[in-house]
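Internal tracking record. Fields below are filled automatically when a chain is submitted to the structure queue. Please do not edit lines marked as system-generated. If the sequence contains nonstandard residues, flag them in the REMARKS field before resubmitting.
Queue: standard
Priority: normal
Entity type: single polypeptide chain
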Amino acid sequence: MTTCTHSINPITGNYLQDLPTMPQGTGTLTSDKGRILGQFEVEGAQYIFVGNLTGFGQSFSIPNADVTYDSADQLHKQFEDFEGLPVEKDQIELKLKNGISITGGFDMPFSDGEVKKGTVVGGGGKWLKL
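SYSTEM-GENERATED OUTPUT FOLLOWS
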């Protein structure tokens, strides 16, 4: 389900265009040698995301990760690939090809030597509902 937010022009007080916002869940994401595990609460239910990263072998932890989706129905057991995405020193955004995004900041940012400019991750994973 997509909701809309209403913005108000501060000068005229009139409503601006309705801006759709995607539903969001929160949780954690960890990676060890390319294997990833996420634990999220989505619409009151617990979901686990398991998968792998290619092109990025660093271990990391994201204690406050967000998952953004159009519908909880997207969180299904079928394996989904990531789009090829660049990694930054302090955060990552993993976009599944079905439109789901997992984002967050690393608990300990990486150095320039650990994350080279232009590093792109691939891989994928699947969701399990507890």
